[in-house]
Amino acid sequence: MGIDANVFYDASRVAIVPMGFCFPGLDAKGGDLPPRPECAPQWREKVLAGLPNVELLLLVGQYAQRWHLPEARRLGVTATVAGWKSICETPRCPRLLPLPHPSWRNNGWLKSNPWFEAELLPVLRAEVARLTA
């Protein structure tokens, strides 16, 4: 996002809202399990309603994308993130920007999709800089 730790952890500038408010545990390989299905319906709308001044939601990973963009279930992460321009430019508040989950497991995805770093990341960084200034 192009911000330092002071900005990232400043609750007046950045809100980190997980899809679930409980740690779902680890799978056999040590990765996080998916969010529990009852968590987002129970909490997400209430939390977002308590953040009325949010201008941009970063939809990090498939679960956030599927929640906010129902068509993402059919399209998958790559196609959803590839459609970022039309998603972000759709008039709504907050605006939505789909992103892949930041994980070492996604290094192959990043290499296979160089447009992400070349096209989307500069826009993300500029928007985050503008909104956190």
Sum this structure up briefly.
By secondary structure, this protein is mainly alpha-helical.
Q: List the secondary-structure elements in sequence, H or E.
A: HHEHHHHEHH
Beta content comes to 5-15%
Biggest sheet details: 2 strands, parallel
Shape: globular
Q: What's the layout of helices and strands?
A:
Layout (H helix, E strand, L loop, with lengths): L4 H4 L30 H11 L6 E5 L1 H7 L3 H4 L1 H6 L1 H6 L5 E5 L7 H6 L1 H19 L1
Parallel strand pairs: 1-2
Question: Care to describe what's here?
Answer:
- It is a single chain.
- With 133 residues, the chain is mostly helical.
- It has a single domain (5-132), classed as Uracil-DNA Glycosylase, subunit E (3-Layer(aba) Sandwich), CATH 3.40.470.
- It has eight helices and two strands, in the order ααβααααβαα.
- The protein has helices at residues 5-8, 39-49, 62-68, 72-75, 77-82, 84-89, 107-112, 114-132; strands spanning 56-60, 95-99.
- Strands 1-2 form a two-stranded parallel sheet.
- The chain starts with a helix and ends with a helix.
